[in-house]
């Protein structure tokens, strides 16, 4: 006969679920579970509803692939923005970081990663085709606007630079201006860890690609 554990079964399940989250060890999972247990019912159920709503309603915008709860996303639907300029980033977190600077009022395109052939990540695993479609067909871009400039906002590391080179090769025959964020970003770093001031300088001082 199995010896009973120290926690009720429902607590064990909650701890197990928390422990599956990235960066959460067993002890951290236990602390989170006890926090939920000690919280009032409304707070705990609010967390449960928020998790359910994220899984039910959040999806990728069909134009830029940003996370949104409606399609197109608020950025792509905003006719006041300059959608002739598209700033290409890797994950949605980078878009959020750049948007918070308040220095950019164009459109975005989220690649959902970067090229990494050694890891088996090829162009077809990213949203490269959707980006090229937006450039080739204004009807596929936000507010049916023709794209005139593509800004590469990929992290300044080996994978980001390799992805920029590939995209630049795909775009050079399409007649669009190409630029990339200024190298005020520390080489080898990631955009999500840069300060707002550094990102703002990178946007203003973006450099053309020949």
Explain what the structure shows.
The protein is an alpha/beta fold. The chain folds into two domains: 49 residues, RecR Domain 1 (Helicase, Ruva Protein, domain 3, Orthogonal Bundle), CATH 1.10.8; 130 residues, Dna Topoisomerase Vi A Subunit, Chain: A, domain 2 (3-Layer(aba) Sandwich). It contains eight helices and seven strands; from the N terminus they run H-H-H-E-E-H-E-H-E-H-E-H-E-H-E. Strands 4-3-5-6-7 form a five-stranded mixed beta sheet. Strands 1-2 form a two-stranded antiparallel ribbon. Strand 5, helix 7 and strand 6 form a beta-alpha-beta unit. It is elongated. It starts with 8 loop residues before the first helix and ends with a strand. 28% of the residues are buried. The mean pLDDT is 90.
Overall, the morphology is elongated
Report the strand count.
7
N- and C-termini, Cα separation: 73 Å
Write the CATH fold name of the largest domain: Dna Topoisomerase Vi A Subunit, Chain: A, domain 2
User: Hey, roughly how much beta strand do the residues contain?
Assistant: 5-15%
CATH architecture heading of the largest domain: 3-Layer(aba) Sandwich
Number of helices: 8
Largest sheet: 5 strands, mixed
**Secondary-structure element sequence?**
HHHEEHEHEHEHEHE
* Widest sheet: strand ordering: 4-3-5-6-7
List unreliable stretches of 5+ residues: none
Give the topology.
Layout: H1 9-19, H2 26-38, H3 41-57, E1 59-60, E2 67-68, H4 74-77, E3 82-89, H5 92-99, E4 106-110, H6 128-136, E5 149-152, H7 158-171, E6 177-180, H8 196-204, E7 207-208
Parallel strand pairs: 3-4, 3-5, 5-6
Antiparallel strand pairs: 1-2, 6-7
Helix pairs in contact: 1-2
């Amino acid at each position: 006969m199995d010896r009973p554990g120290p926690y009720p079964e429902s607590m064990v399940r909650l701890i197990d679920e928390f422990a599956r989250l990235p960066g959460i060890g067993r002890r951290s999972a236990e602390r989170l579970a006890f926090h939920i247990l000690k919280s009032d019912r409304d707070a705990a159920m609010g967390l449960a509803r928020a998790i359910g709503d994220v899984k039910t309603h959040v999806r990728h915008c069909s134009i830029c692939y940003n996370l949104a709860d409606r399609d197109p996303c608020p950025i792509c639907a905003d006719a006041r923005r300059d959608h002739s300029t598209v700033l290409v980033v890797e994950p949605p977190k980078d878009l959020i970081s750049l948007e918070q600077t308040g220095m950019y009022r164009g459109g975005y395109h989220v690649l959902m990663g970067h090229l990494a052939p050694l890891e088996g990540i090829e162009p077809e695993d990213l949203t490269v085709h959707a980006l090229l479609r937006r450039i080739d067909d204004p009807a596929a871009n936000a507010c049916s606007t023709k794209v005139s400039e593509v800004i590469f906002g990929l992290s300044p590391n080996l994978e980001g630079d390799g992805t920029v080179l590939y995209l630049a090769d795909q775009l050079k025959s399409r007649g669009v201006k190409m630029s990339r964020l200024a190298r005020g970003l520390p080489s080898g770093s990631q955009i999500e860890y840069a300060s707002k001031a550094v990102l703002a300088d990178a946007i203003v001082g973006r450099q053309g690609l020949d």
